[in-house]
Amino acid sequence: MNLFLKQLLILLLPLVIKATDSVTYNTCSKASRENDAKCGSYCYQVVKPLLDYARSIKSKEEQFEALQNTIRTQEANLDSLRETISQKDFQLKQQVELSSSYKKNIEFRGNQVHFKDLLIAELLAKMNDKDEELKSLRTQHKDNELIIDNTKQLDLKLSVCKAMSIVSICQGKREGVYVIRVPDMEPFSVYCDTQSAGCGWIVIQRRINGTLSFNRSWQEYKNGFGDPQGEHFLGLEKIHLLTHSQPHELYIYMVDFEGDGSYAHYSNFAIGNESEAYAIKMIGDFTGNTVDSLKHHIGIKFSTPDMDNDFNDGNCGTSFEAGWWFIDCGYCNLNGLYTSENRNKIVWNSWHTKPLRYTQMMIRPKSV
Ligand SMILES: *[C@@H]1O[C@H](CO)[C@@H](O)[C@H](O)[C@H]1NC(C)=O
Ligand SMILES: *[C@@H]1O[C@H](CO)[C@@H](O)[C@H](O)[C@H]1NC(C)=O
Ligand SMILES: *[C@@H]1O[C@H](CO)[C@@H](O)[C@H](O)[C@H]1NC(C)=O
């Protein structure tokens, strides 16, 4: 295209654009319509490409518009997507928060569990302590039982000691009757002898003048009879108790109807209990100015007219009308009939077979 055409085109371009626009066409000035007429077909040839170009532009604009619409739609979609995403973000955030709170909760629970574990450990320790305490209490209980046992044994010893202090009652005492108190027994009177063989002797049997009968039952020999001041028998149970509580000496003093006297001393005398029939358990060593008649009677039970414990076919207690440690009725009997005659008399055969007028049996604790 030459320069002239270019210039012309620049000149005419506003007109061409106006001509293509139907709306603006009516508002064209009178001058421009005249120009159109002048241009004629010449103008058309020149303008046609321009018109085509304009039309293409319009189409492009339409395309652009459509694209813009599409973009708008897409943007709307995008917005909605963004909205959705933001919502999801929010939800996610919430979830995260929730999970973190769960986590915290779990941590808290974990701490609680740990704390409970500590508590349990503490309780277990306490329980252990209680176990120990219980054990110690049990031992204490056992100790207490032991103490109670010991106390019982001590009580027993004490009762024996009491009996001992009681049997020593004649020690340092003047001649006469004194009351003895022994545990588990009624108080009873004894005669303390200081003249026959020194101090501290307790009289357990005495014959003086035959006022008192010694022809008596088991029960009477067991409990004793007579008056401690005069003729009497202290009683097998008491003699057992005294000689059982501690070692005792035995002293026997005898006088016959001719006035001759003698004595027998035994260093360790004791008799058994009732279930042993008050048998003579021991007599110890003999001393005296007579011969020992009692040695044959060791281990011999007591017999009475109503209690036959002897070795005789009959009953020595009945035939001799007395109670004594009878063997085959033999050797001696200080509880015989009070008689100067030769029948069932009071007798100490190892000395002589004459009847005796006076006898006294005494005991005292060995240590005195
Ligand atoms: C001894 O007692 C019995 C009955 O127990 C009696 O038969 C007897 O006569 C008594 N003897 C004397 C000497 O009293
Ligand atoms: C026998 O002795 C006792 C005590 O010494 C006395 O009380 C009694 O009177 C005496 N009896 C006779 C018959 O002498
Ligand atoms: C009598 O003494 C014997 C021997 O010491 C003893 O075994 C028995 O238990 C005693 N009996 C009574 C009733 O005390």
What's the quick description here?
The protein is of the alpha+beta class. The protein has six helices and twelve strands.
Key traits:
368 residues; alpha+beta; 2 domains; ten-stranded antiparallel beta sheet; two-stranded antiparallel sheet; 49% helix; rod-shaped; binds 2-acetamido-2-deoxy-beta-D-glucopyranose
Shape: rod-shaped
- The CATH class of the largest domain is Alpha Beta
Bound molecules: 2-acetamido-2-deoxy-beta-D-glucopyranose
- What is the CA–CA distance across the termini? 177 Å
Average of per-residue pLDDT values: 84
What's the total helix number?
6
**How many domain units?**
2
Q: Report Rg.
A: 73 Å
Number of strands: 12
Largest sheet: 10 strands, antiparallel
Tell me what the structure shows.
- The chain contains 6 helices and 12 strands.
- With about 375 residues, it is an alpha+beta fold.
- It folds into 2 domains: about 55-140; about 175-365, Gamma Fibrinogen, chain A, domain 1 (Gamma Fibrinogen, Chain A, domain 1, Alpha-Beta Complex).
- Strands 1, 2, 3, 4, 5, 6, 7, 8, 9 and 12 form a 10-stranded antiparallel β-sheet that branches. A two-stranded antiparallel ribbon has the order 10-11.
- Helix 1 (about 5-20) packs across helix 3.
- The longest helix is centred in the N-terminal third of the chain and has 138 residues, at about 30-165.
- Bound molecules: 2-acetamido-2-deoxy-beta-D-glucopyranose (NAG) (3 copies).
- One 2-acetamido-2-deoxy-beta-D-glucopyranose binds near residues 215 and 321.
- One 2-acetamido-2-deoxy-beta-D-glucopyranose (NAG) binds near residues 208, 209, 211 and 230.
